[in-house]
Amino acid sequence: MTHLCTLIADRTTRILTPAVREKAAEIIMQTLGVEVAITELSDHAAYDLAFAANDTNALKPLQEKVRHALDPLPIDVAVLPAEGRRKKLFLADMDSTMIEQECIDELADQLGIKAHIADITERAMRGEIDFEPALRERVAMLKGLSESIIDTVFAERITFTPGGAELLATMNAHGTSCVLVSGGFTHFTAKVSEKLGFSANHANQLLVEDGVLTGTVAEPIQGREAKKSHLESYARQLGVDLSESLAIGDGANDLGMIEAAGLGVAFRAKPAVVERADAALSAADLTGALYLQGYADKDFAKA
Tens-digit pLDDT profile for the chain (303 aa)? Predict the structure, then answer.
């Protein structure tokens, strides 16, 4: 079997019934004229449908055909090569990926300007405006905010995305190098990295004078190209081919690393990211990135 159609649903819904799995398998058989073998990764939540594909040009249309056939059920569908599934290097975005918030928006809320800054954040994540000038513009509006408030925001506003702890624990247990790369701020990435178990983290540094934010950020800004460069740099350091890497994120500034990685995953992402990623997760939590690599529940490490 050369390829896999992986079906993933939220683990709490149990909607991936035998009938649903068989429907997906039947579509593959009818479309390609091949046999399909089904393997359970998670009971009623994740399954691999393995098959041999001679025409790789037919795989993208096949993925869309299966996804359309399963609508409106919230099931993620990814058609990927069977070889080299488990990755040795993992880079993850932070805001709206490993955590459920955009940190800069939560800081802005302390000044009563969350709606305005959140609108700029959304446009930048959609790729409608350039990330770097948009970040400078938003950080300038934070001038005068006490640095001590950052700890309060982290404690009271920031929540971890479901499945993230299991994702990190499992990949670390299997020897994967895990790095957090963010267009956000080091004040937050250091805490998230320590909590989840990333071996390193990279982000933007908010400049502070006398305990107050100056409204500026250290240059160069950690954006789209920086994330891609971190991926390439860590791959070189580890002697890992880019095909052996996984990158996951939600916004346009993640596209560089998502497109360069062997497996680029769009997580609850903006449309432009979904379109260009190798796989998209919108129904599943972050454990979906484990199922995409062929990990089954029995392989999960305790978080």
Answer: 899 999 999 999 999 999 999 999 999 999 999 999 999 999 999 999 999 988 888 899 999 999 999 999 999 999 999 999 999 999 999 999 999 999 999 999 999 999 999 999 999 999 999 999 999 999 999 999 999 999 999 999 999 999 999 999 999 999 999 999 999 999 999 999 999 999 999 999 999 999 999 999 999 999 999 999 999 999 999 999 999 999 999 999 999 999 999 999 999 999 999 999 999 999 999 999 999 999 999 999 998
Asked whether the beta carbons of 163 and 285 are under 8 A apart, the reply is yes
Pick from 83, 107, 127: which residue ends a domain?
83
Q: Are both 200 and 93 inside the same structural domain?
A: yes
User: Any idea which residues carry the catalytic annotation?
Assistant: 93, 95
| CA dist., res. 144 & res. 242, Å (int) | 42
Q: Are residues 45 and 106 in the same domain?
A: no
Angle, CA of 214, 216 and 221, to the nearest 5°: 155
Measuring CA to CA, which residue among 79, 101, 98, 241 is closest to residue 162?
A: 98
Domain count, the chain: 2
Please give the residue range of the domain that contains residue 71. 1-83
Phi/psi region, residue 254 (left: phi>0; alpha: psi -120 to 50; beta: rest), is alpha
| 71 and 125 in a common domain | no
Place of tokens 């996951």: 248
Give the domain CATH number at 45. 3.30.70.260
